[in-house]
Design goal:
single chain, about 190 residues, alpha/beta, 6 helices, about 30% helix, about 30% strand, globular
Length: about 190
């Protein structure tokens, strides 16, 4: 699939939003990628995640792990296509942790999957969970790279769509200064506006 074909899917499913958004990273932006609106369609989920699975198919991977909530659907589909186990980390007291009986097996190799990366904060948290428990990070696969390859996880990484989407620190946000468009937080993580 080409960059434009993937972007067309986002546009067709109304998953590329324009407005004034508070991102999970705490930054502000005029665009937001709501991957859930794409991934709700099994054919798009399978198609887009196949790009990640195909990229990592020859890597030595034992388990796919994702940060909740956005990465779960991506991780599950990539794991299905690679025929691997899928687990996820979820927020508890503002930090990602393993729950529900999930655990990291020492010496096993983990592929981290995510939906959207802006600063990479959630992925870096999962990397730390894997490494702190004796696992090995084999790579990181994600759908949208809002940083246009500026975020480096220090392991093999692959994204299906790279864009340089502008984001601002809250006190530098021109949309806040104009005060014409209200700030909204469409993602899953609770952050105060």
């Amino acid at each position: 699939m080409t960059h434009n074909q993937i972007l067309d899917i986002f546009l067709k499913t109304n998953a590329l939003l324009n407005g004034h958004f508070l991102l999970t990273s705490g930054r502000h932006s005029n665009q937001y990628f709501q991957c859930a609106l794409v991934l709700q369609y099994p054919e798009y989920n399978e198609l887009i995640c196949s790009l990640i699975a195909n990229h990592f198919k020859d890597y030595d991977i034992d388990v796919v792990i994702s940060p909740a909530i956005g990465g779960i659907v991506v991780g599950q589909e990539v794991a299905r296509q690679l025929n691997k186990k899928s687990i996820f980390a979820e927020r508890e007291d503002k930090s990602l942790t393993l729950r529900r009986g999930f655990y990291i097996e020492e010496g096993k190799k983990y592929l981290i999957c995510e939906d959207v990366v802006t600063t990479g904060g959630s992925v870096f948290e999962v990397i730390e969970i894997v490494r702190n428990n004796g696992g090995i990070v084999a790579g990181v696969g994600y759908i949208v790279d809002r940083s246009n390859n500026k975020v480096n996880f220090g392991v093999p990484q692959f994204s299906t769509l790279q864009l340089d989407v502008v984001s601002y620190l809250p006190d530098e946000c021109p949309l806040c200064k104009e005060n014409k468009i209200p700030l909204v937080k469409p993602g899953s993580r609770k952050i105060n506006l």
